[in-house]
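sry for the spam today, last one i promise. struct tokens for design, 117 residues
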């Protein structure tokens, strides 16, 4: 995975995505569904219907990256939200999701964190 600065936001497209899409198709979904600019430098994550594959769209300043992951067994614990089209995650939450943890069953403890400018 990439090392990302704290200013980068991570957005999941809740629901399912046709993962036959690549650079242009995922960029279009980012604009239309997530209402974000794909060249913003943020990370956009999409999942298929069976929840065993995902794609990540990321602009590094010089071009777009598309990362893909296919699970050999099992599924991702993808959020199901009917009224919400995007979910914002922290980098640590994305790491947990990619590692197979169900974020809906985890609890974040309250602790101090300085707000970035």
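last one done:
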């Amino acid at each position: 995975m990439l090392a990302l600065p704290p200013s980068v936001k991570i957005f999941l497209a809740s629901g399912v995505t046709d993962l036959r899409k690549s650079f242009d198709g995922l960029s279009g979904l980012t604009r239309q569904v997530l209402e974000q600019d794909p060249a913003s430098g943020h990370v956009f994550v999409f999942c298929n219907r069976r929840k065993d594959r995902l794609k990540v769209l990321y602009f590094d300043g010089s071009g777009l990256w598309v990362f893909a992951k296919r699970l050999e067994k099992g599924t991702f614990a993808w959020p199901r939200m009917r009224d919400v089209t995007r979910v914002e995650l922290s980098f640590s939450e994305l790491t947990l999701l990619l590692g197979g943890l169900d974020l809906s069953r985890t609890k974040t403890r309250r602790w101090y964190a300085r707000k970035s400018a």
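The chain has a mean pLDDT of 85. ok im logging off now
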